[in-house]
Specification:
By secondary structure, the chain is α/β, with parallel strands linked by helices. It has two domains: 253 residues, Alpha-Beta Barrel (TIM Barrel), CATH 3.20.20; 75 residues, Orthogonal Bundle (Arc Repressor Mutant, subunit A). The strands form four sheets. It has a nine-stranded mixed sheet, sandwiched between helices. The chain has a three-stranded antiparallel sheet with strand order 12-13-14. Helix 2 runs parallel beside helix 3. The longest helix is centred in the first third of the chain and has 20 residues. The chain starts with a strand and ends with a helix.
Length: 372
Amino acid sequence: MQSFSLYIHYPFCKKLCNYCDFYKKTISAGQSYEELEKGLQTHFNSVLSLIEEKGAPSLGSIDTLYLGGGTPSLWGEEGAEFLGEFLKTNGLEFSNGHEFTMEVDPGAWTESGLRSWHKLGVNRYSIGLQSLNSDFIEIMDRSHDVGESLKTLKYFKDAGCNYSVDLMLGLPYSVERKRKIREEIDMAMDYRPSHFSVYILKTRKNYPHNDVLPDDTFTSEEYLEVSEILKSYGFDHYEVSNFALPGKYSEHNQKYWRAQTVHALGPNATGFFMFSSNQAVRYQHRPSNTGYSKEELNESELKLEQVYLGLRTNSGLDTRTHFRSSQVTEIVKKWNGLGYVHKFESGQLVLSSKGYLMIDSLMDDLFRFELL
């Protein structure tokens, strides 16, 4: 048996934000979870079949579990009770020292619900703030206001919880309304979060505010400003979009960035199954609970993923594993001259925050230099 990581997708939200492309539905009064609950069992059975098909060890205890969405804090006591029974029925237990993260939105939780989740084993929370400025919360069509955000932060601070907050950069009207991201971060810091996830807004073609998005120069400067601010507070910029106090890195997300197995359950949820040292499969459950699609990854495809993911973190990329040293020297010299390299020692390459920002261009360089 082998310990493992698990992602569960809860698809319901109070409101569908105008920028979000995750699979989700609007929650209704007296929402029935029968379809979701049946689907989770169907998906789990599919995962077991896939493991058997690949001849891999059976599932052991859960090292990390991430309950995302959607807005899983809406699931409340009913959800905690269901998931506890689901784990028990399927013979699943948490490992010693497990990490169990649940996403929480301001205005979408109750104290009794959070107590139930804590009792089940949740020991880390991710709070979907996105902004602490009322103008930008409204522009993003969020279901909460600043008051609800501050109430949520105060609750988790007073309860002594380990929690992360989400912020989003490159928002519409950032230039026109002179967004002051430092003020928002300083405000959040009053409540002592241990982690920040900071994302640059990516929009679809029909996004209603595409014509008032800031340009790439503004957004790049905003990203680098956030990195410097959080570093000044003692946070490590440990992944392109993630910052944490030492010892508070997301164990679950690091599994993704190390190209390790993370199984998944829930409508449209995507899992990654590394079933041998050089083979993996990525699968995605269909929302209709009628099976899943899958993509088999061979050795060369896995190498590409491992290079890309390695460059994304402060653990860096062991270039000796993937490239000949003579190939690497020239390209690292070029990147270093542009300020993209934080450290290059004994073949281990770690990018700077500026390098993280340019990671897609750096991958293009690797292809251009025929290293990939």
